Amino acid sequence: MTVALLLTPVASAQAVPTLSRTEAETRARAVLSKMTLDEKIGQVSMAHFFRFLEGGRSGPVAANAGDSFSRLLPGAILNGGGDTPQPNTPLGWADTLRGLEELGRQHLPGGVPAVFGTDSVHGVGNVAGATLYPHNLGLGAAFDPALTREIALATAQDMRAMNMDWDFSPVADLGRDPRWGRFYETFGESPWLVADQISADVLGLQAGGVAATLKHFVGYGSPSLGRDRADAEISLRALHELYLPPFKAGIRAGAMAVMANSGSVNGLPVHASHTLLTDVLRGELGFGGLVVSDWNDIDRLVTVYKTHADLVRAAADSVNAGIDLYMVPYDVEKYAAALKEAVQGQLITQARLDEAALRMLTFKAELNLMDARPAGSGVLADHRALAKRAAAATLTLLENDSSALPLTRGRVLVTGPAMDSAAIQLGGWSVNWQGVGKGNVTYVPKVSTLASALKTSAPAGVSVSALPDGKRAALLKAAANADKIVLALGEAPAAESQANNPNLALPDSQIQLLRDVLDTGKPVVLVLMAGRPILLPEDLRNRLAALVMAYLPGSEGGAALADALYGRAGFAGRLPFTWPGSLGEAGLSADRPPEGAGETLLPLYPLGFGLDYTRFATSAMTASAVPGGVSISVTLKNVGEKTGTGTFIVRASLPPTGNLEAVKRPVGVVRAELKPGESRTLSLTVPAERLEAFTGDVFGPVTGSVVPGEYRFEVDGKQAAITF
User: Fold this and answer.
1) Coil, strand or helix: which one is 251?
2) Full DSSP string of 593-604
3) Per-residue pLDDT tens for 412-469?
4) From start to end of 518-590, where are the E strands?
5) Are 277 and 229 in contact (CB under 8 A)?
6) Category of 677 on φ-ψ map: left (φ > 0), alpha (ψ -120 to 50) or beta
7) Contact 247/214 with Cβ under 8 angstroms?
8) How would you classify the pairing of strands 290-292 and 268-269?
């Protein structure tokens, strides 16, 4: 069966949760009351699904899989990034997971199967034929939560078609240090702007029948030196002002699960922090769902962090801290023995184990796993139009000297390692967790690349040739005959620590290529596919005719880029992060407070920056108090000659609070697509909590409140004030 036969235009969604939390918990208690100690321990363990496939690797369901269920008793099953059944088709996934579900009903306590979870972080990345969307950082540049929700719903529909119930997504971490390997998995740097995206993502996934997971609670996005899983030093004030808002928004949207931060905060691994996982997450934020560990992270307390002498003590501290379900994923037997010893030795109370098992059972009851339900069709929807629309919304034009764009006439040469590369275009978590061409799956997705799209969709008057950069002499000869050069550069795909980029740099070979094509004297349009801001040598950057940030644009990125470069569409994206001008400014953010020396650091490009083929003007800004917040109104007019999308960040200046505050705190966005000459009055309600100051002394507790005084709001230089 070919992939093409598994694509259809539409797919139905199954609402989730199907039971209220109260009803689900009642049913879960009935099952829990009949479970043995060993069954409860199994219920709070998550096993890799290879444990149930032939040979313990990619293949069909093993003949003795039922015996494995009876022995391991897992409450959940997961796949690692890139691990697949055979065949790796939508129908192959659907049949495999349906088979495991049925075996679970036969061999697990109460007939309740194990729930299957996976990382579908920008579409269902491990499955041949699935549509892959721009990574979160690009969606952050779109500043369009409705689009994020639509993509999440489409992802959930595809997951449910393959009998997948649980997505380890969205990433609610902030992108505060672009050197960090997971920067591209975030929606950007600003807490409340990210919060809007997280809420939309959760609502979309769960409307489509899939449980969402907020990750990684909390502070994972600010590791020291930008190194994945390095210790994060976070004050109580920063915790409340910066890092909690996206999680708070996701919890309010109904997120069914939270994944713990795999790193450490203030010298303590989060998997062992009762303060964060219980006092803050459950007490302060009111989360009532399931807390799951990250991959093998209880064992890492012993083997990597060396904070615990053995797995028994590590298990006890993690479970007591608030971990309900351990993503083991391979050594289920070892963890079960350690957890049992901890319970029998009274390091963990029976009541705490029961609480964790009850949460796991309740989670599955909410997903309707306790009852027979229709099998997934094994047929994916055709979401290519959505993927193209999403990519188009992300593209950010940073430079366009002498109107190098759009490309309307002449000979265009396209080159560079990213011009025709599915691997670079898709980034990490695509086929394999490290990206296309890595790991144990050789499948290369069919994507719309830049070179092919420019060639096949060139307008009259434009001729396009494409040459790889490997044969430099031939390339430079062709460049001499071109009128303009489109150069596509980008980062190789990677994830987590392997994606750390401590210098925010491209490979030397790509910088040399850029230098070579610039030395031809022809106008160079640089298209950058990267998961973070990249620092280019200043002498090269200043010679560019145009610079386009394409982020990691997904399956239809090439088609979207061609439309924008040819002027058939504009550049709707705006930076969701601050682009530093030097490595010493990495981590510079729009909400940075004033410095004692009175200096103001200016980035290369600020948060919200982006150009288009048209221009916008703002006027008639007002601010008025409304119940629960402030209503902002501003008139936006397209004063250019092209249709385009105007996106402007609403910023707030707080009165003196006694603590350092951001000069202008981002609190919302106004956005509209307008035709030439069209104007529209846009309104936004800023909730009062977005204006809270968290005050307190250096080592003391902090208190959040909207302090009395004047609050000044700004949109595109226009201001309005209100006094509380």
Assistant:
1) helix
2) PPPTT------S
3) 999 999 999 999 999 999 999 999 998 877 889 999 999 999 999 999 999 999 999 9
4) 524-529, 546-549
5) no
6) left
7) yes
8) unpaired
